[in-house]
């Protein structure tokens, strides 16, 4: 059996063909495929506007440039990839780490307590962790009551829905972001997108993606104006052609991920392996996270990782608490009261989850994991 990683892209001959076709076309970048991809993402996500960019991190950076000013306070989660809170630091704003709930998402009740204590808090950066959508009722309440800006990091969650409200639809947020890194649901190799329902935000994002430049019909043919300090965060037509082709298969990818999740759920019933949450139809399962109480068994988490790797299985851990990273500790973070996150970090790891994982491979993962854990 080949090595089984925790996540893996799915590339077909159709994907390859559209990439080659784009390479032979007149536009490698800033051509028609970019807008076509943006329109397709917007349609899929039930949202008005989409801006595609070079990766998920630059999507977060542009969103932060629009939402935040220097010194602004932002509530965010320790349970994410570094980029979520790094993007707050990029613009000189200040992340405040809030504990998570048992499902791995930021605790929105604790966010409300913070908002009650400090009315100067500007925004909440929440992550739909593992593909589990954020509680839209709570977001709506916080947004309306405290006039706080909300950014949804949906890097894990394209195709997820909370009571029919799609991830990235920005029904109760100012912006959402996606990532199209190869481990995510669909890939453009590197790539990302920002979605919004605000025309004003959309136009600002377009400008910031391209050096802060504006060109209007009333200008002379050679003229352009730089109005903000922007960046080159463009995505190429080659990447967008791949993204469009991948998007055609997204529904089937998610259906397969859900099938894999249900099989894991039932295999672990009555064992020491506890799914982070069980199937309820909402999550799009970027990750399948499980919890094991290592204090009750004779195998350490480190031994488990090493032994499974020897047996050809690449489990992963999502995530090391961001506030406990050395860079953040140097800024004075790391001692926040986050008991749920701390316990979660002791117990969590992620199992292989990707559409091309075969039934036999999954059975092998389940059998081997339980064997190693039972020592
Ligand atoms: C992957 C990821 C990002 C960053 O996306 P890139 O495309 O790798 O820059 C941001 N947030 C979360 C939650 C992610 O998983």
Automatic annotation (TrEMBL):
The keyword Transferase applies. The keyword Transferase applies. GO terms for biological process: polysaccharide biosynthetic process. The active site is at 184 (proton acceptor). SUPFAM superfamilies: PLP-dependent transferases (SSF53383). The modification N6-(pyridoxal phosphate)lysine is found at residue 184. GO terms for molecular function: pyridoxal phosphate binding; transaminase activity. Pfam families: DegT_DnrJ_EryC1. InterPro entries: DegT/StrS_aminotransferase, PseC, PyrdxlP-dep_Trfase, PyrdxlP-dep_Trfase_major, PyrdxlP-dep_Trfase_small. It is an enzyme of class 2 (transferase). Keywords: Aminotransferase, Pyridoxal phosphate, Transferase. Its EC number is 2.6.1.92. Gene3D superfamilies: Aspartate Aminotransferase, domain 1, Type I PLP-dependent aspartate aminotransferase-like (Major domain). Belongs to the DegT/DnrJ/EryC1 family. This is UDP-4-amino-4,6-dideoxy-N-acetyl-beta-L-altrosamine transaminase.
